[in-house]
Amino acid sequence: MEWTFRSAEPVVADLELAAGVIEVSLDASEEILVRLEPLQGDSERARGQIEAAEVGFSGSKLTVHVPNRKGRDAQLRLAVSIPAGSSVRSSTASADVRFRGPAGALDVRTASGDVVVEDSADSLKATTASGDILCAAVAGDAEMRTASGDVNADSVGGETTVQTASGDIRLGRIGRSARMRTASGDVRIGSAAEGDVSVNTASGDVTLGVEPGVGAWLDLLTVSGDTACTLVSEPQGETDAALRITCQTVSGDILIRESDRINR
Question: What range defines the domain where residue 172 resides?
């Protein structure tokens, strides 16, 4: 089933789907297209959920709500095409959520699905219990939380907050302050240049790159792991440093070095 609307400006999309996959394409087109179809073959349950879907567009807001059925929800594919720069809030139980094209603010919540941002977003707030979070670029702030999944981001321009229980954290470049916490995962940051960077992990290793020429104040602590820093030591005080790094790990290793030696 399909629905079409028109808008010359970016919109705000509110998407709700219980199970399956949500695919959002953001392009320069003025046409808004919503397509809802079974993901794993047609069934009476799938047809019932599609027919009961509530889809509407008013002002600058697009709403797609697929009501849950008692018992097991059908696996559906929700494909949405909206203008570039649009903002999206999506909520799902077990669906993957994917974005293609430049997006505005993204707020994604899923229990067991992955969150993938293939291009860029103005800001990102992503929460998943057992899925991975992957994004190319976030211009502003990013808040990413997952229980057992990995977090990967090429770059974050604003404040960064990452929390995971047993997953790894991989960040290419962080523009400002960052807080990262994981129980048993490794943390790897390709490049940091300013602000406060705090990393806390129980049994994971920490590797962090500092932009060349940036003064850094370090507070590193590991109980049974090794600590190494290859930055050039200079007689500067804490207040002279543009970057403050605090790393704590119980049984992991900590390595601090210049970012040009790390693959971002």
Answer: 140-264
Domain tally, the chain: 2
Alpha-carbon span 161 to 178, nearest angstrom? 6
Tell me the pLDDT band of 236, cut-offs 50, 70 and 90. low
Whether 114 is covered by a domain: the verdict is no
Q: What are the tokens at 80?
A: 């949405």
| C-beta separation of 86 from 104 below 8 A | yes
Over residues 75-97, the pLDDT tens digits come to 999 999 999 999 999 999 888 99
Closest CA to 65 of 42, 49, 48, 47: 49
Per-residue model confidence (pLDDT) at position 263: 46
Per-residue pLDDT, 260: 67
The residues facing 227 across adjacent strands are: 254
* Residue 109 belongs to some domain of the structure: no
The count of other CB atoms within 10 Å of the CB of residue 61 is 12
Reduce the DSSP state of residue 99 to 3 states and report it.
strand
In a domain, 90, yes or no: yes
Distance, in Å, from the CA atom of 44 to the CA atom of 46, rounded to the nearest integer, reads 5
Round to whole Å and give the CA distance between 146 and 164. Answer: 5
**Residues 67, 167 share a domain:** no
**Among 79, 104, 129, where does a domain finish?**
104
